[in-house]
Amino acid sequence: MQTLIHRSLHVLLATVVSCSWTHADWPQFLGEKRDGSSSETALLDAFPEEGPEVVWRVPGGVGMSAVTVADGLAITTMNDSGKQLLVAFDAKTGERAWQTGLGAEYKNGQGDGPRATAAVLGGVVYAFTGDGVLCAVDQKTGELIWRTDALQACRASESEYGMSSSPLVVGDSVIVHVGGRGTAVAAFGTSDGRLQWSAGSGPAGYSSPTLMNVAGKQQIVSLTGDKALGIAPSDGAVLWTYEFETPYACNTANPVSVNDDVFISAGENHGCVFIDVEESGGKFAAMEHWASVDSKSVMRNEWQTSVLVDGYLYGFDNVGAAGPTTHLTCIDADTGETVWRKTRFGKGNLVLADGKLWITTMDGELVLVKVSPDGYEELGRAILFGRTRQSLSIADGLGYIRDNQEVVCIKLR
Is the pTM of this model over 0.90? Predict the structure, then answer.
């Protein structure tokens, strides 16, 4: 009887412990809500002396896409064996589940390999190659469902530094930045890859479309190479625009939703703007709530998207035109005032989970920082991977990161 009671208590305790954290996949670029945050809890509050445990590391080819995690698979794209490959690994073991060729390997003077991060929805993986081919692949088998040359469909030209837009799936549409006259942003059918609508004109830039509520209406917000646009998901109607031309069309960070308005930022010494979008009589107007531009800007996101926490934006402020100096910065989202700055932190990327910033640096470090407007408080730092620009993807207590040689899975709980 005592044994039975002890077993029952053990099962109950195990159940309580297993329910003490939340689990979420990372099914697209910048996570489930595409805002760089994860709902996971009970993650590490500090690193062990030897650093977090590496669960697995496997060869990963060359590429700049982050890792998508969904339904037990960790998925990324890479140059390997003369091809651009979409590869799925078992998320727990790193064993390769399948790989699918999307086209010839992609090479570019600013770095080789595909750039965009895949999206997973409804058992289908959507990937965008460095030369602008949009593909749909069966998530379970890796079988190619359809393949569309988006540049050809839109009569557009390849971006100078490669096509970098991570697909956004909304309803029966998969949306990417393509560039061109009337085709800056384009939607393709999820079932057949056919062009459904296109919107805006100008260079594609290197950011990705985001679905958010703006002025009380759900919109696709895109930061292309020279402007921000609010777009109706159903038909591609442009609801509002805000001119934001950056040298070399290097608008790379994603727009951030702030209380039904929009924050945008770019490097190249451009800066940032909080766009106030208002609706009246069914028409939308975009105006500056505040702007901080040029060499004295408070936030110049080079390729890293800032994260919003309790009214404060945390992000990387890059000094100069792609210069070597980068500060980790916290600003008040409503006023644009700098709250604190960790000067010369170095280049990296970040995501938010469990009240902490999980920062990946160009030096191969994972850095843990407490989220607080009170100041910079570092909780841990460890070298775990190679040179990378990508952010950590967090799912089921694990973090996934890739460099130009490996894909790495790290225990975060």
Answer: yes
